[in-house]
Specification:
The chain is an alpha+beta fold and 392 residues long. 37% of the residues lie in helices and 30% in strands. This is Ubi-OHase: ubiquinone biosynthesis hydroxylase, UbiH/UbiF/VisC/COQ6 family.
Length: 392
C-alpha cells in the first residue's frame, strides 16, 4: 500500500459511538469515511424509542464539543437530579442529589434514536462521507495501513480502521480478536409507564433477588423501566395481561411512585457480558460494544463507549499539537491499554454487583446490606462513586 489517496480513517458502525468518533475525527481535520449497514430510522417525537440511556456529564461535554448536544436538548431529554438505590432484602439505601454536588443535574435520560438521528445530521453537515448501505467483508492490514473490502466489491484504504459495529462486530471477527463472554441467563424488560405520583426528576433502582429494577424519569411525567429478570420470568411478564403486569411492577418497585400503568409496548433483550481481549489488532481499533458489552444495571454501556471515543480524540489532538503522526503504533497501543484497563474494571465491577444483589443467599444479603449502608453514610465515598460514574 502507498499513502497516495489513502484515507486517514474508516469508521465501521453508524451508531452513537461510531458516528461520534467519525464526527470528532472530521472536526480534527482528518479524512474519514463512515460505513454503515443500514440507515437509521428518522427519530420522531411521536414514536418514543424504548432504548434509553442515563447519559453522563462527561459525554454531554463530548457531544457539546461536536456541536450536537444543544440540538438534542431542544428535543426530548429529561435531566435527573436525584437517585435512590436500595435493596429489597435489607433496609440500607444509597441516595445521590445534584444539590450535594453543586450541579444542576446528575445526568440526563436520552433516547437512543434521538442521539443517532442528531449525530447523523451533524456528520453529514460536517462532510463526513457515508457509505450506506454497506458491509465489510474483507480486511487486510500491514504495518502502514488497512484495506477493507465492502460487499459491493469496492475497497477503502486507510491509516486506521475503527470497529464500532456493535456486539456482533463483523470487523472484530475479521481481526481474529477473541472475546471473553458470559451469558447471565437474564433478560432486560423495557417499557414506558405512567405513575400515580410524579417522579420529581428522580432515578430509582431497587435490587431484587432476580435482578435490579430501574425506573428512569422521562418527559411528560412518564418513566422508563429497565427490569432485569431471569429469562423465564421475563418472558412470562412480557406476555402477562396489562392489569397483572401493572400490579407486579408496582410491587417490585416497592411503591416508590405509587400505582404504575403501562404506557407503551413491552420488549426484552438478552443480557450478556462480552469483553474483547484487546482493543487493538494491527491498525484496527475496537470501540463501544465491539469491544465491551456490560450489564445494564449501572446504565454505563454507551458512556463507556463514548469514553473510548473521547480518549481517542484527545490522542489525535495531542498528536496534532506536537506535530506527530496520530497513528503512530506507540500512540495506538497506549490508547488501547488505557481503555481496556478501564473497561475491564468497569465490566467486572458491574458483573460482581449483579451477582451479589441478584440472589437471596444469606451471606450475600448481609454483605450488600452493609455495603449500601456504609456508602450511604460516607459523603466522600458517595461523592467518589458518583464522580466515577459521571466520568469527572
Amino acid at each position: 500500500m502507498n499513502r497516495r489517496g489513502r484515507l486517514d480513517a474508516v469508521v465501521v458502525g453508524g451508531g452513537v459511538v461510531g458516528t461520534a468518533c467519525a464526527l470528532g475525527m472530521a472536526d480534527a481535520g482528518l479524512d474519514v469515511v463512515l460505513v454503515e449497514a443500514a440507515e437509521p430510522a428518522q427519530w420522531s417525537p411521536g414514536h418514543p424509542d424504548l432504548r434509553v440511556y442515563a447519559f453522563a456529564p462527561d459525554n454531554a461535554m463530548l457531544l457539546d464539543a461536536l456541536g450536537v448536544w444543544k440540538d438534542v436538548l431542544r428535543q426530548r431529554v429529561q435531566p435527573y437530579r436525584r437517585m435512590r438505590v436500595w435493596d429489597a432484602a435489607v433496609g440500607g439505601a444509597l441516595e445521590f442529589s445534584a444539590d450535594g454536588f453543586a450541579r444542576p443535574e446528575l445526568g440526563w435520560i436520552v433516547e437512543h434514536g434521538l442521539l443517532v438521528d442528531r449525530l447523523w445530521q451533524r456528520a453529514q453537515q460536517r462532510g463526513v462521507v457515508l457509505r450506506c448501505p454497506a458491509r465489510v467483508v474483507t480486511l487486510d492490514q500491514d504495518e502502514d495501513g488497512v484495506r477493507i473490502g465492502l460487499d459491493d466489491g469496492s475497497t477503502l484504504d486507510a491509516r486506521v480502521v475503527i470497529a464500532a459495529d456493535g456486539a456482533q462486530s463483523a470487523l472484530r471477527e475479521l481481526t481474529g480478536v477473541a472475546s471473553d463472554e458470559h451469558d447471565y441467563d437474564q433478560l432486560g424488560l423495557v417499557a414506558y409507564v405512567r405513575s400515580e405520583r410524579p417522579h420529581d426528576d428522580t432515578a430509582f433502582q431497587r435490587f431484587l433477588p432476580g435482578g435490579p429494577l430501574a425506573l428512569l424519569p422521562c418527559p411528560q411525567g412518564r418513566s422508563s423501566i429497565v427490569w432485569t429478570l431471569p429469562a423465564d420470568e421475563a418472558r412470562r411478564l412480557l406476555d402477562a395481561d396489562v392489569v397483572a403486569f401493572n400490579h407486579e411492577l408496582a410491587r417490585a418497585s416497592d411503591g416508590c411512585l405509587g400505582a404504575l400503568e403501562l404506557d407503551s409496548v413491552r420488549a426484552t433483550f438478552p443480557l450478556r457480558r462480552k469483553l474483547a481481549r484487546t482493543q487493538l489488532a494491527g491498525r484496527t481499533l475496537l470501540m463501544g460494544d465491539a469491544a465491551h458489552v456490560v450489564h445494564p444495571l449501572a446504565g454505563q454501556g454507551v458512556n463507556l463507549g463514548l469514553r473510548d471515543v473521547s480518549a481517542w480524540l484527545r490522542s489525535v489532538r495531542d498528536a496534532a499539537a506536537k506535530g506527530r503522526d496520530f497513528d503512530a503504533l506507540s500512540r495506538l497501543q497506549r490508547w488501547a491499554r488505557e481503555r481496556r484497563s478501564d473497561n475491564t474494571v468497569s465490566t467486572l465491577a458491574f458483573e460482581a454487583i449483579n451477582r451479589i444483589y441478584s440472589n437471596d443467599q444469606p451471606a450475600a444479603t448481609l454483605l450488600r446490606g452493609h455495603a449500601l449502608d456504609i456508602a450511604g453514610r460516607l459523603p466522600m465515598l458517595r461523592h467518589a462513586l458518583w464522580r466515577h460514574a459521571a466520568g469527572l
